[in-house]
DNA sequence: TCTATGTATGTAATATCATAACACGTCAAG
DNA sequence: CTTGACGTGTTATGATATTACATACATAGA
């Protein structure tokens, strides 16, 4: 999967590609990418980071949208439901999905140096988890896998 | 690892064993198991569930300890540091560690039916995660793996 | 024994994260 | 042209967590 988050790259390629995919997906599914929702997605796409709902809200408010928490939470929840964003439990924050449409139950790598959040391919991780769970008779429905650590750049810098 | 959380068992065997181990570990390390800390551990050990800090606090207050959040958070943080409790990110809640002393970076299995939380052996899961991370040059320091699903009993009942 | 020091606890105040409930507007189907 | 579904705005409140400071308590060193 995509190592880009951790390296210099032309970020427009990321965000533009995701925006197009998002539009296509939502058109196909009939869900509506309203101005607030679109703007929230754009804001999340600005960086490979996780943003708190209140940070997003502040941005929205500054641009003339509503300035009460539900405005942000509703848009964020919508994006999460549509698979366009992920919630990072550990940070109480949200990040744009960089691979919308692709079926994926990602693992998140959170750099403690630069706060970058990347999605890692988690199929083997999930397989191992489901196997461990099955040994106890437990059926996994959803799982969150979040790792804290250092990205290549921050590791080198430290 | 221990499938007990998901089955009928003499729970005193769990909690007594853990309490003894906890005492031994802390005596050895020089850390102090003060009344508040001991009581919090006992409370967590009452069930194979996760408890919110404010639930713990309520219990403490009812027993004559302080009734402000830091009282609970400090004791809980202490137990987590000492490896005697775990924080479940997904639930904003805490659970007693059922295998203190054993080196382990567990995966948590959270039953959506009965709220039981079990620790599953996570060595293979972590290995898979570290491997996926290494492919991106990322070094994992700490990770949380939390699965929602159904335990054997609740699965059968549903 | 006394006192200085570090550690633990108690409390007030506040910060941060999240949701419930209701009002209003828009738009498309009937 | 009305109705109903959906989206947005707003008020209020709930739930989770931390900062800062005061007090007590244990214990090692004078």
From TrEMBL, chains A, B:
<dbReference type="Pfam" id="PF01475">
    <property type="entry name" value="FUR"/>
</dbReference>
<feature type="binding site">
    <location>
        <position position="151"/>
    </location>
    <ligand>
        <name>Zn(2+)</name>
    </ligand>
</feature>
<dbReference type="GO" id="GO:0000976">
    <property type="term" value="F:transcription cis-regulatory region binding"/>
</dbReference>
<keyword id="KW-0678">Repressor</keyword>
<dbReference type="InterPro" id="IPR036390">
    <property type="entry name" value="WH_DNA-bd_sf"/>
</dbReference>
<dbReference type="GO" id="GO:0003700">
    <property type="term" value="F:DNA-binding transcription factor activity"/>
</dbReference>
<dbReference type="GO" id="GO:0005829">
    <property type="term" value="C:cytosol"/>
</dbReference>
<dbReference type="InterPro" id="IPR002481">
    <property type="entry name" value="FUR"/>
</dbReference>
<dbReference type="GO" id="GO:1900376">
    <property type="term" value="P:regulation of secondary metabolite biosynthetic process"/>
</dbReference>
<dbReference type="GO" id="GO:0045892">
    <property type="term" value="P:negative regulation of DNA-templated transcription"/>
</dbReference>
<feature type="binding site">
    <location>
        <position position="111"/>
    </location>
    <ligand>
        <name>Zn(2+)</name>
    </ligand>
</feature>
<feature type="binding site">
    <location>
        <position position="114"/>
    </location>
    <ligand>
        <name>Zn(2+)</name>
    </ligand>
</feature>
<keyword id="KW-0479">Metal-binding</keyword>
<keyword id="KW-0805">Transcription regulation</keyword>
<keyword id="KW-0238">DNA-binding</keyword>
<comment type="similarity">
    <text>Belongs to the Fur family.</text>
</comment>
<keyword id="KW-0804">Transcription</keyword>
<dbReference type="InterPro" id="IPR036388">
    <property type="entry name" value="WH-like_DNA-bd_sf"/>
</dbReference>
<dbReference type="GO" id="GO:0008270">
    <property type="term" value="F:zinc ion binding"/>
</dbReference>
<protein>
    <submittedName>
        <fullName>Fur family zinc uptake transcriptional regulator</fullName>
    </submittedName>
</protein>
<feature type="binding site">
    <location>
        <position position="154"/>
    </location>
    <ligand>
        <name>Zn(2+)</name>
    </ligand>
</feature>
<dbReference type="InterPro" id="IPR043135">
    <property type="entry name" value="Fur_C"/>
</dbReference>
<keyword id="KW-0862">Zinc</keyword>
